[in-house]
Specification:
Elements: E1 9-10, H1 24-27, E2 35-36, E3 42-43, H2 53-63, E4 74-77, H3 84-98, E5 103-108, H4 116-128, E6 132-138, H5 142-151, E7 157-163, H6 175-181, E8 185-189, H7 203-214, H8 219-227, E9 233-236, H9 242-247, E10 269-270
Parallel strand pairs: 1-10, 4-5, 5-6, 6-7, 7-8, 8-9
Antiparallel strand pairs: 2-3
Helix pairs in contact: 3-4, 7-8
Length: about 280
Amino acid sequence: MRIRLDRRAGPCHRTRHLDDRRSPRERAARRGSPARGHGSRPYAYRHGRNVRQRPREKLTGEAIAGRRDEVFLVSKVLPSNASYDGTLRACERSLARLGTDHLDLYLLHWEGSYPLGETMRAMERLIDEGQIRFAGVSNFDVVQVKAAQAALRHHRLAANQVLYHLRDRGIERKLVPYCQERQIAVVAYSPFGHEALPRLDSAAGRVLAEVAQRNERTVRQVILNFLTRLPGVFTIPKAGQPEHTREMPGDPAGRFHRRHRRSRPGFPRAQSRCPLGML
């Protein structure tokens, strides 16, 4: 049985939002690395973003050389490149740097100034030509997801990658149910949050430590277990250290003791409308 930390209403926990006024360079500066996606096969994740994209994509290509069939390879197109022609060219550049002939999933990083229809039309062409297998979006709320779906004429929207962690659970209210009904995968980035994990001497930290100890799991595995309890939701935790990589495959979605299904304090579920968070 999977744990259920809290069912009480609580405040929205946000530090950055889609409607902020940061420049594209600032908004695109979120760090990422190849990681294992829980709820899927190995997930070699590659952000399309600023000038750091080039060396990182080359590094990713080197890491998966000779193992392409073992990973689910994902990249993104930035809104500044998301015109029809720009999307096609951006994908070609990513494929060249990654040393592969196709991506498994190609995402629009967030909605920008180019018409969404142009971007989705380019995505469909990339699918038809075999350069990508699936098209998706990132940092889209329900209204935006509906618009992306409407813009696709011949292929379905496969995924929406969004911020989701214990202190930012707003997507559980409307976005996750909507995507579940339409078989759109919800890909949770930053599942451990953008701040440090709760101190073990805090109320929230003690909850996590207790559940981890009783179930012979680590705190990170407890967190991943909770976040992936919903069908169609999986996570892409960053593995910045070798020990993190070894820890992640530790069956975070395995069965937990029945007593840990009851409500727990510290991580309330948002019940009021919250803007979609983004890093």
